[in-house]
Amino acid sequence: MNFPIFQVDAFTDQMFRGNPAAVCILEEPREDSWMLSLAQEMNLSETAFITPCEKGYNLRWFTPVIEVDLCGHATLASAHILWEEGILKAGQVANFFTKSGPITARTKGDWIEMEFPEQAATKTVAPNGLASALGVTVDEVHYNGVDYLVPLDAAKTICELEPDFQELKKINTRGVIVTSLADTAEYDFISRFFAPRVGISEDPVTGSAHCCLGPYWSERLGKKNLVGFQASSRGGVVRVTIEGNKVVLGGQAVTCLRGQLQ
Asked: Does 202 qualify as catalytic in the annotation?
């Protein structure tokens, strides 16, 4: 049986920018080992698997190493494909059921908006080795049970950061978010995301990290609507809106490849 499979550049309106994700559409669930093998074959930060269910679509995400509980860019890629391929009609809501709960996605002009659970972080003590692995002085650290959030002094510091990924891999966490105020009026804040422990040294654009970044910067800037730039080599833009205990992430996406898995 053949399966349609796509590669989508997410959180960008240009090919070869943003964060690439594979999207595989299944007629029925497949075993975990098969999905992990396909994720390894695609060798992207995430491969998304969409399976129809009664009220929408079951959605799961795999890195080449493990299954993850929440992924923003592969959700954006999945929603984009459902509309672009005509599986969902224009204006229909995409309802996804995931290990982190239900996620809805809607089109808004050329953008897609997705409703995610908030993952706010609280101030904590820096784990041993974090500062040396990042190669910078760390004055403040926050943790949300999934990722460490490290505010730094300037956008220039964020952009010039060269972490030691082998040392960072020793820290018991999914990932480390570094962030600062933006140095341009176009964005409110910038960030980068490192997750070598789950097989991703640096993720190009990380939607789920903005479920933590959004509440953090909303509180400090006194704003509910923000725009973040993830300053990886590919770069990407994420709109963030705080709505109670929900975070609405907005992004654009471009299909790069279409194919059939034999």
From this structure: no
Domains by residue range for the chain, with CATH: 3-106+252-261 (3.10.310.10), 122-243 (3.10.310.10)
Length of the chain, please? 262
CA dist 238 and 188 (Å) reads 11
Mean pLDDT of residues grouped by 10 in the chain (262 residues)? 92 97 96 97 96 96 94 97 96 96 95 96 97 97 97 97 97 97 97 94 96 98 98 97 96 97 88
Question: What is the chain's alpha carbon radius of gyration, rounded to the nearest angstrom?
Answer: 18
For 66, counting Cβ atoms within 10 Å of its Cβ (0-12 exposed, 13-18 middle, 19+ buried), the class is middle
- Annotated catalytic residue: which of 28, 31, 46, 118? 46
| Cα–Cα distance for residue pair 15/8, rounded to 1 Å | 8
Question: Cα 162 to the chain's mean position, in Å?
Answer: 21
Distance CA(104)–CA(97), nearest Å, equals 9
HSE (side-chain half, CA atoms, 13 Å) at 60? 19
